[in-house]
Amino acid sequence: MTVKTRFAPSPTGFLHVGGARTALYSWLYAKNQGGEFVLRIEDTDLERSTQEAVDAILEGMSWLGLDWDEGPYYQTKRFARYDEVVEQLLAAGKAYKCYASKALLDEVRAEQEANKENPRYDANHPKIKAVNDAAKDGDAFVVRFRNPKEGSVVFADQIRGRIEIRNDQLDDLIIRRTDGSPTYNFCVVVDDWDMGITHVVRGEDHINNTARQINIYEALGATVPTFAHCAMILGDDGAKLSKRHGAVSVMQYRDDGYLPEALNNYLVRLGWSHGDQEIFSRDEMIEHFSLNAISKSASAFNTDKLLWLNHHYIKTSDPEYVAGHLQWHLDHQGINPENGPAVTEVIQLLADRVQTLVELAQQARYFYEDFDAFDEAAAKKHLRPVAKEPLVLALEKITALETWTTENLHQVITDVCETLELGMGKVGMPLRVAVTGGGQSPSVDATMQLIGKARVMKRIQMAIEFIEQREANAG
Ligand code: GLU
């Protein structure tokens, strides 16, 4: 039997990290088993579903690289099929029409509550029975599934083990509303059945639905899939993860400068483990993934760990690949990389110093753009009158350089230090502030090499003038 899993989001908002983790686990299990992964959009809630949310989900899935073998299917395109199955259940007596109005159901519920009974739909309640018996053609009705009254639903959850839910806790579920629209628990079963889904991976908030759904599978004579219910994700304060904890939308992580590898690696470990390994390439995740190694307990989100992973992937991924993702941030920050060195070289120089692509883009700016002012604190400290002589001498030697290499630039700095009998810092720091505008950068020789000769000369000259201006003002 080929394993087939699915991710079935309701398009009522963006793809959040909880959904993304569920999608990742489903996807990984399919890949691990050499199976297939289906994407299904559960858009039957017409009021809450939007095209924008569908687009956001597709965008998030693509950004994470969670490609699907089938779909996206849309439930709204399958209404005829749901109707057909409703009719089949009605004909077999496994579902029935119920004419009770909302007002009557509310009345019965209030009565049950007053009698300290468990409030639930009861087809045998005399008032409900009377209405149903008296119904005539043309009266509005819903279709309810005839849930078994006795016994329990038992299933072997791949994460949580044996789960048993008594049938007397489940009432006769509405499967088609008065307006003819089918309901969630019913559509899911018809879809998973029709699409040949063998393993359903989803959040533990669906456990009660699973029991109802298993009864429907059985009524249809369909094979019941295997279930795996994942525990919740909590924020670092122990509360359920929400917007309050910062980014929860997958695309917000893109905007905040994460690589999809980092988020995937982070999410796979958030509730799943393989020994004490932390870093997993995509192939390793696929190779080692299993449903029963997913944790039963809730996992807490830890942004520092995500940043650590992001740093790792920025540093170790192919610079060409990082460049592809950095481009979005360069565009976003209005930096045009055509005005300077190859982005891959800038990445190689800066990767060790940043945790996000946002920082990488920010720090890349001086390679591509001139500036008209130095960072105030850095200039105050390093562009002082004593720095003028080493800058003038460095400019002279740099101007005379015939081959523009990091080694030659290093030699220039060493020569200036020797000639003026100054320590490295007294030459390197003013040069750094001069060419980058600030006090922090990778090693100044390699930085100057990448910035390029013309810009370096112009910027040192600007620093010299800055110092002269400062002297003039002081005098
Ligand atoms: N559409 C449901 C949701 O977004 C998921 C249903 C399922 O995975 O079975 O919560």
TrEMBL record:
Motif ('KMSKS' region): 240-244
Listed EC numbers: 6.1.1.17
Keywords, ordered alphabetically: Aminoacyl-tRNA synthetase, ATP-binding, Cytoplasm, Ligase, Nucleotide-binding, Protein biosynthesis
GO cellular component: cytosol
Binding site for ATP: K243
Record-annotated Aminoacyl-tRNA synthetase class I anticodon-binding domain positions: 324-464
Motif ('HIGH' region) on chain: 9-19
GO BP annotations, alphabetical order: glutamyl-tRNA aminoacylation
Catalytic activity: tRNA(Glu) + L-glutamate + ATP = L-glutamyl-tRNA(Glu) + AMP + diphosphate
Function of the protein: Catalyzes the attachment of glutamate to tRNA(Glu) in a two-step reaction: glutamate is first activated by ATP to form Glu-AMP and then transferred to the acceptor end of tRNA(Glu).
Family: Belongs to the class-I aminoacyl-tRNA synthetase family. Glutamate--tRNA ligase type 1 subfamily.
Designated name of the protein: Glutamate--tRNA ligase
Organism: Vibrio ruber (strain DSM 16370 / JCM 11486 / BCRC 17186 / CECT 7878 / LMG 23124 / VR1)
